[in-house]
User: Fold this.
Amino acid sequence: MAKQANKGFLLRLDPEMMEQVEKWAAQEFRSVNGQIQWIIAESLRRHGRTKSNES
Assistant:
């Protein structure tokens, strides 16, 4: 099965939260977008919501 393209959406963050994400992304050598994707993916894994965990 071919991998589908990423889907974009608008995300609103307050300035303080955005600043923290920017700092974290810089520390991890990621873009802000890449950091947000990683945060979401990690949360899905931790909570058993990934496809490999679905029945």
In short: The longest helix spans residues 32-46. The chain has a mean pLDDT of 92. The CA atoms of residues 43 and 49 lie 8 Å apart.
